[in-house]
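ARCHIVE RECORD
Type: protein–small molecule complex
Small molecule: zinc ion
Source of inputs: curated submission
Record status: active
Notes field left blank by submitter.
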Amino acid sequence: MSPTTTAAASQTPSVRTSSALPDYAPIPKSALGPALNEQGYYVGRVERNLYWITDGVYQSAFVTTRDGVVLLDAPPTIGRNIQRAVDQIAAENGVSNKVTHLVYSHHHADHAGASSLFDKSVTRIGHEETRRLLLRDNDSARPAPEETFQDRRTLQIGGERIELAWLGSNHSPDNIYIHLPDHDALMLIDIVNVGWAPFAVANLSDDVPGYIEAPAKALTYPWKHFIGGHLGKLGTRDDVTLHQQYMADIVTSVKTAISTVDPTRYFQKYGENAWAAVKGYLDEVTDTAAAPVVAKYTGVLAAADVYTANTTFWVMESIRLDLGFGSQVHP
Ligand SMILES: [Zn+2]
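STRUCTURE (tokenized, with ligand):
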């Protein structure tokens, strides 16, 4: 999540006084997950031999099998605590702690950047686009997967079944659905942040229509446990539905704002400075559209007052440019 780092770094110390920092609504207690241990992680059972690990901001998961451990993502913030969590669970259950397989949900460094900590003999599995992007990015922390697939692939490892599917681009071009039918679980990263509003620009989504459609695709699978990749909690089907409603409310509100906000005064004031006029107009559309959504979801989704306007801007641009909403051809 480098944009926050970049934004913070660009501020000079003189303006970073406490009085200049905005206040936000309290985080609903329901948005927070289990307490972390002394090493800064929590590991818990999802169902049977499927476990999840969190550091409170990122999530990883793993399945213990009779032949070793299948790891699902390796976020660098959890880093060496991944193996510690695996060791802990393996010791408690008398099973192998050797990570034999690593499945990448997508190519992003914040979910895959601890990949190189694992043995060179680990088998890395991912979508073919994940391989292409990792070869392009050439980051030694994230070796490209040798085993790839195009649309669907079922893994049978040590008697356990994991179904991988690529159902179109969304947050990233290569983001996949990881379904564990015998564990009643779905792992889908960077779409729904359980209990929280999305991060900046719709969870940094490359493809906003794909991002908005992804929860419905997730809900076509049978599952009870949702692993979303961020913050400190697992989710339920209701959490995914709530996120879906939040995004739908942003779309409806943006269409109303595009249809009602009048840009005339911005073009009259700024004249030949086209960007100043466009910025003023689009900022007003964004703020007008975001306001009722922030009001509705404050106290429901954590940090709805932090990033909703930013996500609304990105959804507005998609509605204008992908859907052509409000577009007029010069007479
Ligand atoms: Zn990502």
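CURATOR ANNOTATION: The first helix runs from residue 2 to 9.
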